[in-house]
Amino acid sequence: MKVRGPKGTYDVLPADQPLRELVRTTAAAIFSSAGYQRIGTPAFEDTGLFERGVGSSSDIVRKEMYTFEDKGGRSLTLKPEGTAPVVRAYIQHGMHKLPQPVKLWYAERMYRFENPQAGRFREHYQLGAEAIGSGDPSLDAEMIMMLSDLYEALEVPGVELRLGSMGCPACREPFQKELSSFLDERAGAFCPDCLERARLNPLRVFDCKVEQCVAELERAPLLVDSLCQSCQDDFSALRGYLDSLGRSYRVDGTLVRGFDYYTKTTFEFECARLGAQKGIGGGGRYDRLVEELGGAATPAVGFGTGLERIVLALESEGISVPEVGIGVFLVTMGPEARELVVPLVHRLRQEGLSVDMDYAGRKMKGQMKQADRLGAAFTVIIGEEEIAAGKAAVKDMGSGRQEQVPLARLEDEIVLRLTQDGADGQKGSR
Fold first, then answer.
1. DSSP string spanning 291-340?
2. Are 151 and 333 in contact (CB under 8 A)?
3. What are the CB-based long-range contacts (under 8 Å, 24+) for 277-280?
């Protein structure tokens, strides 16, 4: 029996970490520069949070959630998205008392029972941001630009922005009746999933990817053409801000987000390099969610972007981050040398330096090969002869230059070499 990871999951191996870490650190810098603070929420929540927040008619709640009963008989769900848990935390911890809007960001794992494919997994990592407490369209523009800036900073290729509006109850409800009539008249042209969506929430039909349904929906009425005056004004203001910021976009009346909590602004960034499933990130406004989850009526806007989708797009462009080698590898020959080196390695690590030594009983040649495999910037060779002479051989692995350094000065010399010119143990980068 072969032991393998569960279907739809994957291991993040050491070689995969540098590019992922680049995405995370770039996101953290961009989000924090706009005043967003990091928040973390549990991996699982009460199932009712998602049923009420995301919506019982959404595909996520109907088909994709990992729901289980704990030993206390409570129904819990591994979180399939990040917004509802953040809003729950906002309400639970009285964050409405803080200066508004409260700006938060997260980088966490999400879980959905989906058909695994390139860049889409049952366990995935999502970067997201939420701004709770303001209905100003300029905040929507800030959200869009933060995500745009992230893709630009990472040099994600071929990114385009789709922009739409989900309206508000005043304009959405009459539109849904119009859309329902359209769908009823052409029921025979739609797939079973569309018919089910039409029964539960007609707007969800625009999520369908079946060619026949997509073609039929080209003749469907669009909500962006039926917005009330207030929603029109907000949408116009947002577009004005984006125009002034030089952010190009395409207005798409078929753009509906997969959650029921969205109102007004919706947006999605697409990357052509990702193929048919080209959505790389998006979000929108959810002015009713705080109230629906038990808080006071509070406007809010947010977004999410999949880490795997970003990495896949970058790799399609040949973008990678070289692994960083260790600073120094200490080659030892004989027990006396090891007795000297073990405490030295520990002290150097306490200095914040990247240091390693041999733990496999290799001969000198094998230890040098190991140092090279680890990308060491320098090696330090200590054996019986070196101890007798009171000197160690220090070799620059880049130039091949080797020199003798007194053992009494060895620790200071290693610290100096690895910290001068900001090297900090990273000269072994390959």
1. HHTTS----EEEEEEEHHHHHHHHHHTT---PPPPPSEEEEE-SHHHHHH
2. no
3. 277/117, 277/118, 277/119, 277/120, 279/309, 280/151, 280/156, 280/159, 280/305, 280/306, 280/309, 280/310, 280/313
Omega of the bond prior to 101 within 30 degrees of 0, cis?
yes
For residue 207, is it left (φ>0), alpha (ψ between -120 and 50) or beta?
alpha
Q: What is the Cα–Cα distance from 119 to 129, expressed in whole angstroms?
A: 21
Comma-separated ranges of CATH 3.40.50.800 domains in the chain: 328-422
CATH architecture of 14-168+228-316: 2-Layer Sandwich (3.30)
We find that the CATH architecture of domain 328-422 is 3-Layer(aba) Sandwich (3.40)
Runs of H (alpha helix) within 104-160: 137-154
At 358, list the tokens. Answer: 């041999």
pLDDT value for 155: 94
203 — pLDDT class (breaks 50, 70, 90): confident
Count Cβ atoms below 10 Å from residue 37 Cβ, excluding itself: 10
What pLDDT shows up at residue 205? 86
Place of tokens 């004004």: 233
List the single range of 147-156, 271-280, 360-369 with lowest mean pLDDT: 271-280
Q: What is the pLDDT of residue 57?
A: 67
| 261 pLDDT more than 90 | no
